[in-house]
Please model this.
Amino acid sequence: MNSIVRSFHREARRLAADPWDLAMVTWVPLLGVALLWWIFSAGLPRHLAVGVVDDDHSSLSRQLVRMLDATPGMQVRREFTNTAEAERALRAVEVYAVVSIPRDFARTVKQGRAAQVTLLHNAQMGTHSGLLQRDVRAAVGTLSAGIEMAARNKRGEAAQAVHVSMEPIRTQMVALFNVSSNYEQFLGAALIPALLHILAMTAGAWTVGRELRDRTLGAWLGASRFAGTAGALLGKLALPWASLTLTGLLALVGITWGRGWHPPGNLAWVACALALLVAVSLAAGAALAALTRSLRTALSGAGFFAAPAFAFSGVAFPLAGMPASARAWAEAMPFTHYIRLQIEQLQMGAPLATSVPTMAGLLVATVVLWLVAALGLRSAAHHPATWGGR
Model:
């Protein structure tokens, strides 16, 4: 206990004397979290800029343009005179898609033949492309159905019979979770802990690696045994853990209750898991610094492990679609398991028993990495010649 208290006070004095180190575990994480929330605060992407090439200039083509502009997800910003001009605007990202209406569009429809509307879009921008495809299909499908129903009604076919004959088999799509497809709730809420994971692992590597770089490891640990070293490490990481965890909890409450979102699961359970994610990240960073005895190598390792954690988590790309080796790497990352628990509770309302193994795994990983870091520091303390590495 004395080692914990002494190390805690020593770290508090060091942070107070270095405003930039203090910033990295206080206002910088808060600023990063606020920026991520601001980016996704709209929830649903709206009014994405699209262009139109109307070669028909008929009342029907103008009606289609009005329907496209009325769709919440897009806004017709420009009308181009030809396809080449539209493609230049697409390449310059002045618009995200272009709808091309062919010449004789209205005449073809009136003759009872199929007319074709072309959507030019950049599939490299997956989110924009998917939303625009959905909205264009909806607008064109609504117009097409309206024309067909009007034609059949004129021929004397009953309205109910028209509905059945046009769509004899219907698909019912039921969204079980995140019904509104709110990007703030599933993407913003996932990126915030990912950022804290990176910052915590970096903080663990920096906090311990700095003692090695500045050759102050002996002054910090003294002649304590393994238990004292483990306690000193615990005291040293306590302040970064408290600060980053508090930032994460504020973000969690703000993005849920603060935005009028009351998740179906247990928010307190997610809060505990978030505290464990910060703890395991700090312990992993500290273990890297203790084992490599190099601040530079530890920071590089922290970036190597933590930075791509979100990409491997299964949120942006499904785990089932990854190669076996990539999936194994993803399963080895603590963030993958944390974000699965968060989705289970915030989105799916899963029973707590479903998330208990994840919580236990994060706790075990934290303890193991803490002990590994303490063993590495104890070994480094006996070899002063290895101190001072950058």
Remarks:
- The beta strands are 48-54, 74-80, 97-101, 118-121.
- The first strand starts at residue 48 and ends at 54.
- The chain has 16 helices and four strands.
- Residues 8 and 332 are 31 Å apart (CA to CA).
